[in-house]
Records
---
Amino acid sequence: MLDQFDIALDPMFPPVDRGRLISALSEVLPAGALVTKTEGMRVYESDGLAAYRGLPAVVALPRDTGEVRAVLRTCARLGVPVVARGAGTGLSGGALPSPGCVLLSLSRMSRILAIDPDARTARVQPGVRNLAISEAAAPYGLFYAPDPSSQLACSIGGNVAENAGGVHCLKYGLTVHNLQALEIMTLEGEGLTLGGEALDAPGFDLMALMTGSEGLLAVVTEVTVRLLPSPSHAQVMLAAFADVRQAGEAVAAIIAAGIIPAGLEMMDRLALTAAEEHTHAGYPTDAAAILLCELDGAEDDIAEELERVAAICEAAGAVQVRVARDESERQLFWAGRKGAFPAMGRLAPDYYCIDGTIPRRRLPDVLEAIGRLSEEHGLAVANVFHAGDGNLHPLILYDANEDGGIERAEALGGKILELCVAMGGTITGEHGVGREKINQMCAQFGSAEIETFFAIKAAFDPAGLLNPGKAIPTPARCVEHGAMHVHAGKAPFAHLDRF
Amino acid sequence: MPTSTASEIRDFADELADRVRAASAARTPLRIVGGDTKAFYGRAVGGERLDVSGYAGVVDYEPSELVITTRAGTRIKEIEALLARQNQRLAFEPPVLGSDSTLGGVVAAGLAGPRRPFAGAVRDSVLGVTVLGGKGEALRFGGTVFKNVAGFDGFRLMAGALGCLGVLLEVSLRVAPIPASELSRSFDLSWPAAQAWITTLMRRPLPLSGVAHDGERLHLRLSGPSAAVAAAAAEFGGEETPAVFWEDLRHRRTGSLGAPRLWRLSVPRTAALNDLPGPAIRDWGGAEIWLDSDAPAERIRTFAAEAGGHATLYRGAGPGEAVFSPLPPGLFALHKRLKAAFDPAGVFNPGRMYEGL
Ligand SMILES: Cc1cc2nc3c(=O)[nH]c(=O)nc-3n(C[C@H](O)[C@H](O)[C@H](O)COP(=O)(O)OP(=O)(O)OC[C@H]3O[C@@H](n4cnc5c(N)ncnc54)[C@H](O)[C@@H]3O)c2cc1C
């Protein structure tokens, strides 16, 4: 399994004596900043992708930027890999400890430093929870738009590292579109400011490059996010379909009509029945699929757009179209969606969440193809996802205690991702490559791009010690994995030399 | 639109790649040119002209996906006309400074119009690029879908990089539907008073899409669904501003925007910058200031920096004069390493952004 790092296929570093590492760190950190006992380190063994496990050499829990610097400088000096960790909700094994690493947990840096309602910004430490920002901004009538379903737990530093998305990203953008400034620290302990107080900064757009870099370039030590005024009204419509294809067609038709909903989510029968049993949101369990379409803005505009969306859904074959009765039913509809992942526990002991994105118009075909793959592999798949963005989340249901259970789930997941690439999409819409999708990177990118990614990494981290073995596959791994670099059946610029 | 055959297009790409390889081998600087309408922007670059404007044409436009992919030499006017026929447009409202202006130049310059604070920067609309790196290899970053976190975001990095990292060959952009309603109003308000009002407006969920001060009057543009736009316009009152005001501002034709030596200050919207050394036009709710001034560069840069921003000598830099605010040493060193990662021989527009980069 991929939680095993391979000396031939992954960047590896000469082992450093653990006792020496611990004493070097103890010298530069206050008491209580290190976890060295195995039992204490267990919670850091894996992130949200619990199937992958590994113990670090030691866990460091800095309280401020100075302590982050102390850890990084020590690791740079000794040649020890560093894996940053926020809340550990990541779903691609990005925060999985690599062999002999220092796991750098930013969870103690969890203070909101300033909210400036006039500038509409919040300056926070990296360990602040996503939802805590919107909660702190709410008294000013403002909110932080990117809202991953994990927003109760996930950290803003982790959001930046993954370029996290959420239900509201269709209208309000991803993490990268809602950042104002970042403080980062390189492995050598150098602090840099990216972005700033103005809407742009001179030089290359390094803030954009840093966003989604999965802890490979630098450690995020402070984040200034942009806040938006909360919309005056919001309403959600639930449309039920007897056929998954029709729901997919309705999604494409809504966007094609020039409507940008605040959220447009889809659940298929398996997902919506589990969610219904879990949350009692009032979903029609006899439907093959439902769409939740949220519209926000002025009341009259919402009413008009709801009518248009209803007409589009009905034209696509919706058997039922319902607008939430009141605010509490609206909240309930969304509670069902947000609780859909945990609800999977009712269907199977384990689930494996896939995260490809495809062009919206391919939704009907891809959903059908996933259904076929699911039958071929003998594993049930529930779909609950950000349909408006074409960002799929097939949840593969399996039993980790069964022999070969996870391997079978991984095999099916790999097939689904390759399907996404073939359809002109991508292997990851928001969860990141991490450790999990490192082999599929070879399907999406050629050796020239991968070489450039390593060159970018080396520009920030010449020693290559930050989160090694994640996000970018070594050329050796791509050779071993044997993946062909193909886009929709043909390599782009296939006739040009590739290095 | 130039109708080139597939093989002509391929030959052109091959030729560009050969030129890049040859230039890298000989360490000959290349001055990358699209429509050459923004030659004034950035420091002067010597070297051989690499004209990309012939590499033109729409690769794919799927209105229902809100995505267009075109070759970098495609004229921006043609792209905008094509989008308009489908009731769509570019969210970032780029300045178009001549009919030959190409998409590649627009993306490389990274300049956006009045809608920037409300609809995002150029890089926020870029979904993917194909660029030639310094070894003449075609690199494809990003793609054609909005949500995509595979690999580092080499595509967003190209926006505003002034061609210093590669030769743009193809760009995929997210486009926006044209909203149902658009209205503009203007008010007889001097700057500090206007700024206070803007601050309260920006805290409300209003359908603003332009907030500019021309030195005498405040102009507000509202775009969005009809009811929200009508309600805001009714609340604000004011006089009607003709749509051409925004067109002129966007294309840098308003009043002092034609000044031979023109500064662009990018500052926090809430900064108190009241005693500017020259006539100013403020866009982006005050976050972008166009300043017509002969004051010493040092003074203007310090002024912007003290307000929390930076200053660009947008037009009229003398030979060898700096255009962009200097970067702190650590950040500049990182820029040089990144440049070398894409362009090891340093042939792409060397010095256009900074001396030594
Ligand atoms: C139930 C559930 C629902 C989810 N829903 C969504 C969703 O809707 N949208 C979405 O985008 N994601 C979703 N996720 C995935 C996950 O929550 C996000 O990826 C989130 O951004 C991870 O944040 P974290 O703080 O938990 O990061 P971690 O898991 O701790 O780390 C993630 C990555 O970021 C790096 N990292 C963390 N902090 C820093 C830092 N300060 N500096 C540098 N690198 C750092 C780590 O090295 C790692 O590579 C979901 C997860 C779960 C469990």
---
Amino acid sequence: MITKTPNLNRRSFVIGSATVGAGLALGLKIPFGASVVRAQDGSPEVTAWVVIRPDDTVVIRIARSEMGQGTLTGLAQLVAEELECDWSKVKTEYPTPGQSVKRKRVWGDFSTGGSRGIRDSHQYVREGGATARIMLIQAAANTWNVPASECSAVNSVITHRPSGRKTTYGKVAEAAAKLTPPEKPALKDPTEWKLIGKSVKRLDTMDKLSGAQVYGTDLKLPGMLNATIKDCPVFGGKVKSYEAAKVTGMPGVRHVVKVGDSAVAVVADTWWQAKTALDALPIVWDEGPNATVSSATIAEMLKEGLSAEQAFVGNQNGDAKAAIASAAKKIEAVYAYPFQNHAPMEPMNATAKYTPDRCEVWGPTQNGEAAFAATMAASGLPADKCEVYKVHLGGGFGRRVAYQDYITQAVLIAKQIPGTPVKLLWTREEDMLHGRYHPVMQCKLVGALDGSNNLTGLHMRLSGQSILSAVRPEALQQGKDPLVFQGLNPGGDFAIGYSVPNLLIDHAMRNTHVPPGFWRGVNINQNAIFLECFMDEMAHAAGQDPLEFRRKLMSKHPKHLAVLNAVADRAGWGKPAPRGVYRGLAQMMSFASYVAACAEISVSSGDKVKIHRIVAATDPGYAVNPGQIERQVAGSFVYGLSALFMEECTVKDGHIEQTNFNVYDSMRIAQMPKVETIIMPSGGFWGGVGEPTICVAAPAVLNAFFAATGKRLRTVPLKNHGITLV
Amino acid sequence: MARLTINGKTLEVNVNPSTPLLWAIREQVGLTGTKYGCGIAQCGACTVHLDGAAVRSCVMPVAAAEGKRITTIEGLASGGVLHKVQKAWLDKEVPQCGYCQSGMIMAVAALLKDTPKPSDAEIDARITNICRCGTFQQVREAIHAAAKA
Ligand code: FES
Ligand code: FES
């Protein structure tokens, strides 16, 4: 067998005495040598971001995970911009969480979710690049015995301006690393950027074209065995018994092991052997009390919440209930959003090797540090005996961020076979049955219009699941889950774009036994449908154009309005559409970016929807790589529209019913609309990119469907209404 | 045992004949560019060529591939030169996570072989791979670019 441990041999880590000749980590203040570790507060050593090899190769460390969203390239652009290095010589690598722990979190947060990759780390990674540049220039100035102020750097070449002398980063890196880093390096003004804002090519494309990219599923270690697992299909259930003897004689089978108290795994020479044996293994489950839960009982529980007395208030001004009571016209609607599985193309997997002295894990995770914590907990070993090596993810979408369940399982299996590396790979069926699902939510909306058809009041009552209650209950605010109100808040990264004179948005928390997770876009997906479709409903009730109706409420929200106007203009809102084509609009603020969409659809036979075009606009503040932003916008629409039309996980007898793509479909190329993206960075803030736009696709299409048919569709997915996307 | 001809090389693999070709390729032959996505012929991540035609290897027993020419993503480029589909994929920067792309590229390479200048409708009919990252807009552009190359 070929051994594949990606990148490890190419790693340029220079911890320990291997420093000499192996390249140089600038400013690496690891616990040896004189200038050693930093303050107790763990403030980051910024120059740990940049390694320069004698041949001028620049290795940029990336703490966040690349799962397709392009953050690896974007973060490298930020560092390289300040470093003034030769972009063609840039390589990247992931630091390990174990190293980060040893070095007091020098690389900051590893978590890659909430569209935070760039917007949360742009400051310190740019400082990492700037610090390195200053030290490199200083080192060159020292060798020439001239003031650093007479030297400048471009493209990895340092020039002493008065004499014209030149040297390269690779030649002075060693000397630079011995210098004391400057305290707070000044960063360039955005007007001086050369690389940020350019659509440079991704750094990770080539290996993805040739089969060379090693994903978690592809890892091979010497002596490795392969495992697959079945967890109790009913969440909260346990293993009662299983008959290992029935399969231990099957080809290749080495071990049948219990994993925690709810799962059984078969470990074999090959994965196919493990799967074949697991399929044949008789397992009896103790399903527990959740086995009586169904989609219908969950829907009932949520429905009760729509009119419950108690609810957490997320946004309130004026007196919405009084405004509604005295309305000239009252509009009411109830919407609902289902459980959905992330279904990244690469099923959950992780490889673990355990000995009583060391536990190592290789795998795809959106949060290296959380994977590290899971490794420690499952192995029972302290931090200095654990390590996690990340590999690129075959999709994440939030499934691999808050939960490291697959890592825990891999370690628990490996622990029972000390010394032998074990790769655990889930079947697609296991992946579908043990997701961490998009939360279920219902919403009742009541709007009030006065005699002149002005919106005077709005009450939005949400009823449904809280993700935070499941993943971080300590983050609840006196019981309230603030994330439930994404896109509906009075201010912040998820601010509502309308001024409504009397407004009440509240949430009756109704949690289920089905575990909820962060799913690309998170709660903004359903909130955008609720708010933006209901805006449309109210506009029609008021006899007004949906764009004009919105505009009247948006004068205090100029950035929201700007993206909405941009899509309306580009799509030709107000001008006749091609025959049979109808338009719908939506806008939101999402993960600190302002986003809007105008969809153009036609409907044939009343139930076949063709989306011809979606014009999308995003204002992410700064657009680091416009080419990649365009791809994220179009990709987010595929994910969001698959969810709108096709995807629902239903619950029967306590378990999820959908087991594979034959019953949980995903858009194909034939259904792909033309996506035109307007990127309009207005500067002064850093918004997200991977998630924000997903939320506007669905309401824009639903509003266009109403324009085409006069029918409101208020529950997702549309397949339940007999509607197909063609 | 099965005798397979993969990317121009013939080899004996020690495997039960009912094992899906996908797993023989990944586990016995050791070529991991071909991916597992669903195991039920729905997603196309496991697409390889059998005598030049695209097949979903997760549902094809290895026995059915004996005596045929199997090409995987690793064998698509020849003599270090990228296949025109790979070249177009590079130019248009198609991959996001990339996990589906081996299968996508193999499906497209087979399409262009028998339909060198596919219309959009032909692309829609023939390319049915799932891409959860949603690269379809770039996939379509890259197919047309490859067709012109
Ligand atoms: S893995 Fe074969 S089609 Fe999905
Ligand atoms: S590129 Fe990620 S699934 Fe297609």
